[in-house]
Amino acid sequence: MQYRKLGSSDLNVSVIGLGTNNFGNPQRITDPAESAKVINKCLDVGINFIDTADMYGGGQSEVHIGEALKARRKEAILATKFNIAKLEGESVKARIHRKIDESLAALQTDYIDLYQIHFPGNDVPQEEILGLMNDLVTAGKVRYIGECNYSGWRHAHADAVSAKLGLAHMVSSQNYYNLFRRQVELELLPFCTAQNVGFLPYFPLAGGWLTGKYKSTDTPGEGARRMVGQLQGDDAARQTLDKLDAYAAEKGHTILELAFSWLLAHPAVSSVIAGAMTIEQVEANATAGDWLMTDEERDEIDAIAGWDGTAEEIEGFGPGSAPVRRR
Predict the structure, then answer these.
(1) Catalytic: which of 3, 56, 115, 144?
(2) Cα–Cα distance between 174 and 273 in angstroms, integer?
(3) Whether the predicted pLDDT of 192 surpasses 50
(4) What is the pTM of this model?
């Protein structure tokens, strides 16, 4: 397993991370023991970066992780998220204080390595958000702070506020990014590269479209994820999938390995957040980033999966908020 610094922090994260929105999900993993098997296998193969959120599995994801890590907490770099997009009458200060304490209790730990604001709080001044998050760092409850679903301009504004007021700055940016969803290339990725912000792509496999499980000739199943169904119904996406599959095979790799290694070839990417429900999936994910892709290979893949820069959204508000399109 390879490791990279998470932006300007001193956190050495595995290039493949574990996304945990399957844990506690009534339709996925409901048994904490099954989640523990996945987490322990991750640690055994060198995956040390575990990413969750207070909302995953209705809060049960954090509970599952806390149980699994009781004896191995120091082996993991633990990241979670909180939400201030819908305060519903609660003050920002009360929300952040409540959320951090709830997450610490659920995770059975006294500190979180990376605490991320999950969605932009459009009506909340950055000074207020960052001041309160800085307090968590000062108190030792949080080591570093980051964001999820910000655009580049919003993260840059946050950095300017932090610098002006002498507050902890956000070391990471987490957003939706894969070969079929490339809006972050417009301004967020260039910003992260220039400012040494660790970028953390989620949904790297386009909901399973890039796992090798789906073929271009498949028709959307009733239980298919929304993004997979959209891609299966898109002729350009189908043709692109065939070309990517052929390119990977020519290089002696799977399309799963291509998808992860293409992301890791970008200098801003610190770790690719990949979900897993079985130890077999953990093993496949752990080795998928071993292809040290050259700039030439990444350019060739870009030519296959070219994108003209059009999109319905720039700053995202979570998966499914805009259609997945290829043109």
Answers:
(1) 56
(2) 9
(3) yes
(4) 0.92
